[in-house]
Design brief:
Elements lengths: L9 E4 L9 H20 L8 H8 L4 H11 L18 H19 L5 H12 L3 E5 L5 H7 L8 E3 L1 H7 L8 H10 L6 E5 L2 H9 L4 E5 L5 H6 L4 E3 L11
GO molecular function, one term: hydrolase activity
InterPro entries: B-phosphoglucomutase_hydrolase, Beta-PGM-like, HAD-like_sf, HAD-SF_hydro_IA, HAD_sf, PGP-like_dom2
EC number: 5.4.2.6
C-alpha cells in the first residue's frame, strides 16, 4: 500500500519540497540574496540566479556549501568567515546568513504548510508501523515541522544543526541520511529515502539505501532518476497507488 519494496521498514524524508511547500520560499530567498550580491559585484550586466542554478548547486545542500558551490560555478571565491558573520559580510557565511534572514522573513510573511498528499502518506506510513525520520540541511527544521503540524509523525530529526554539531558532510554525501538510519535503529538497506533535490537522491544512492524516491515538484523527473532515484513521483500520495 505504500509503494515500497518489501524489505523497507523505515522512511527518511527530506523536508522542504517533499513534506512542506517551503522549497519555493528557499528558492526565493536564495535568488534575492545572490542577485543582490552579483549586482553589487558585477553591475547591471550580471547574470541572475536561476532555477537551474538552484537545482544544480544549492538545493539540498548545507547553507555554506550552497553558497560555495554556486559562487564557484560563477568563478567567484570568498573567504569562509565564521558562523556569526553579519549578513552584509562578503564571506561565505555572511552570504549564507543573509539568505537565512530573508528566509525567516518570507516564512513569517507566507506561513508554512504541508503538502496534503505528504500528510496523507505520512499517516499511512505511521499506521503501517514504519519508523519515520526527517533529514534536511535546514537549520530551521524544528520550527518548520511544528508550524506545519508534522512533528507528530517524526521519531528522528537530522537537520543542519545536527550536521554541523556532528561534523557530517552535507548532501550529496550520504552522511546525514546514514545518521538518520542510525537514529531510527535500522540498516540503510531497510530504509527508503524521499528527496526532491538532485544532491539528495545522490546521497540516498551513495548510502546504499534500499529504495530512493524522487519527488518531482519542478519538472525534473528524468534528472532525479539519472542522479539515483529508483522512482520519481509528483506527489507522495501517488505512491499509495503504486505497485513496487
Amino acid at each position: 500500500m505504500l509503494g515500497l519494496p518489501e524489505p523497507i521498514t523505515a522512511c527518511l524524508f527530506d523536508l522542504d519540497g517533499v513534506l512542506t511547500t517551503t522549497a519555493s520560499v528557499h528558492m526565493a530567498a536564495w535568488k534575492q540574496t545572490f542577485d543582490e550580491f552579483l549586482r553589487a559585484r558585477e553591475g547591471s550586466g550580471y547574470r541572475p540566479f536561476s532555477q537551474d542554478d538552484y537545482d544544480q548547486h544549492v538545493d539540498g545542500r548545507p547553507r555554506a556549501d550552497g553558497v560555495r558551490e554556486f559562487l564557484h560555478s560563477r568563478g567567484i571565491t570568498l573567504t569562509e568567515g565564521s558562523a556569526d558573520d553579519p549578513s552584509d559580510a562578503q564571506t561565505v557565511n555572511g552570504v549564507g546568513n543573509r539568505k537565512n534572514d530573508l528566509l525567516l522573513e518570507l516564512v513569517k510573511e507566507r506561513g508554512v504548510s504541508a503538502y496534503p498528499g505528504s500528510v496523507r502518506y505520512l499517516e499511512e506510513v505511521r499506521d503501517a508501523g514504519f519508523a519515520i525520520g526527517v533529514v534536511t540541511a535546514s537549520q530551521n527544521a524544528e520550527a518548520v515541522l511544528a508550524a506545519a503540524n508534522l512533528d507528530q509523525f517524526v521519531q528522528a530529526r537530522i537537520d543542519g544543526i545536527v550536521v554541523a554539531d556532528q561534523g557530517l558532510r552535507g548532501k550529496p554525501a550520504p552522511d546525514s541520511y546514514l545518521a538518520g538510519a542510525r537514529a531510527l535503529g535500522v540498516e540503510p538497506a531497510r530504509a527508503a529515502v524521499f528527496e526532491d533535490a538532485l544532491a539528495g537522491v545522490e546521497a540516498g544512492r551513495a548510502g546504499a539505501f534500499g529504495f530512493v524516491v524522487g519527488v518531482d515538484r519542478v519538472g525534473q523527473a528524468a534528472a532525479l532518476r539519472e542522479h539515483g532515484a529508483d522512482l520519481a513521483v509528483t506527489d507522495l500520495a501517488d505512491l499509495l497507488t503504486t505497485v513496487p
